[in-house]
Amino acid sequence: MFFLIVIMGIMSCHSVPKEIKVASPDGNIVLQAGTETGGVVYYKVDYKGKTVIDTSGLGILGKNLNLTKGFEVSDVVYNSHKGSWKPVLGEVAEIVENYNEMKLSLKAESGQKMDVIFRVFDDGLGFRYHIPKQGTTDTMTVLDEVSEFALTGDHQSWWIPGDYDSNEHVYSTSNLSEIDAFAYNAPSYEKKIYTQHIVLPKAVQTPFTMKAADGVHLCIHEAALKDFPALHLNYMGNNMMKAQLIPSADSTVKSINVLPFTSPWRSVNIAGDAAGLLNSKLILNLNDPCALAETSWIKAQKYVGIWWLMHIGKASWDYAGGSKDGKPHGRHGATTENTKKYIDFAAQHGFDGVLVEGWNVGWEDWFGKWQDSVFNFSQPYPDYNIDELSKYAADKGVKIIMHHETSSAVTNYEKQMESAYQFMNKYGINTVKTGYVGKIIPKGEWHDGQWMVNHYLRVAKATADHKIMVNMHESHRPAGMNRTYPNWLSCEASRGMEFNAWSAGNPPEHETILPFTRIMGGGFDYTPGIFETRMNAHDKNKKEIVHTTVAKQLALYVTLYSPLQMAADLPEMYEKRMDVFQFIKDVPADWQDTRVLNAEVGDYVSIARKDKFSQNWFIGSISDEKARKFEFKLDFLDEGASYEATLYEDGEGAHWQNNPYPVKISKRKIKKGDVLMVNLAEGGGTAISLMKQ
Ligand code: NOJ
Ligand code: CA
Fold first, then answer.
1. Which of 473, 490, 492, 494 has the most ligand 1 atoms within 8 A of CB, as the residue to mutate?
2. Nearest to 106 by CA among 81, 70, 65, 56
């Protein structure tokens, strides 16, 4: 079958074969498609001879175009691609991109037309709709997408509720039939998100990850998300998930598109085990190649910042909040003096950047007001001397990272974007963290709707035009767009470290779920590195804690991928534990190779990665609430070479809740094939650096 397809591809056959099928290059995945009763388009997927997606409907329902039935296949075109490409930043230096493609052209008696394009890779598949201009109809108002995923069992799944406005939820683990988007959290972590909108009781967000009874892992997500709402999935009963699109401000409409229109890809990862999901590059491969002519200015970065200080309540973003006469209250974090302190710390310890939040006017009115024109993105507070600080940072070889909290007044941001990026260029600032806290303006739009999807992309493009890298918070979750716009370094778009500072927090299993769910789509600015895990050390009235040991905080730099990594705690916390901090100083954020050493979703993850610019390897291994012992066979090291290994393990008696602090540091000489035995505490982890001698 495989050879048949390739030959057909080369011949670029235009006809309708009897069996409409396409297989992955290795032959393990076979996708079949066609039309069934009533002219409904369907597809079906087998993996290693077993059906993993049973007959599932496809189509888009428009107000003016019904592309869900009445079709006949008018043409099938096969194609295949074999190649590789080099990501600007990434987990590996080179990504293999081999797939077989099948384009199904469909025509209805009414004259309506649609193409469905399938691409099948060894690690999964994608499909997308192409809707040509139809006679005189040149726009389509989308009411619903009917893409189905008929799963072949009541799989175990990891999910967050189908919230139109936030992805900052704790993950639930349940069978498909038990999905309950309203009772979404483990009760002890129940915490409403500040801005949320959960409508359907059985809708979940993607990346949606499942494990079948036979151990096959599946993850449904999307790629090349442009000009369309983000994808959710609605559980329909009988193991069936159906596409659910976030509506626009007119709640009946999902999207309006000019024809011809090509939808984002719907992606399905298929892997024999959990590690297979982490090794997959399917979502990146489904995205378009890099759109930027020149990328040498795009760099992975490690940064510190005036940030945790505000989250733990030791300083404020605003300058004069609550004061009647506009006089400063004296708690402002982003002062010239404080920023210099952070720049000094960054320079001393080799960090690339210093994030400064609360530097610009507007923070007095930012929270909960749903108000336009709050922030000015070119006007610093009076106690923040941007001229002086830019020079100071440049002298020390450190970059200031700009912060643009929009408070979701996106119209206000759109008006100022150009001038704000020019302002950054003027001061030599080449990275911006954007944020979208609160309800969106234009009112009625959602964080994950079409209007906002287009906005985030406008930001990625406009920043690129100014040679600026961007890190988006509260954006839609990534869908591999960093292949096309590698300056779009990272996103939050999930429940990050900050929740541990001021809420019930993130359960110990949280970080063992993220790589298989949220991070499938791209880097996560999780902001690890908290050494003072108990908030009552900062303020005796506080009860919040970080739900990990300190050793696990180190391991997160390897297990939670992002080309932008923060050392999030206060410099004074690091100064107290320089021996432990050494790992954060050493670990890079850009990689030439990655090996998954072991993995089970929600239980543990161990990953080894090789620095992009040296021969050194780094290992991160994390556990959920259980203690674990692992053996790592170091067969990926260079033959004949000697490495100095430094192990940072949970120390004697370590436990995420009772005793998070002990870290046992040990050194030894290591060579290829050696075995390292490590112990992870409850909620713990191990970090290892392997420096080639
Ligand atoms: C939420 C972001 O996730 C956080 O990092 C930031 O500090 C606040 N918004 C303020 O912008
Ligand atoms: Ca956030």
1. 473
2. 70
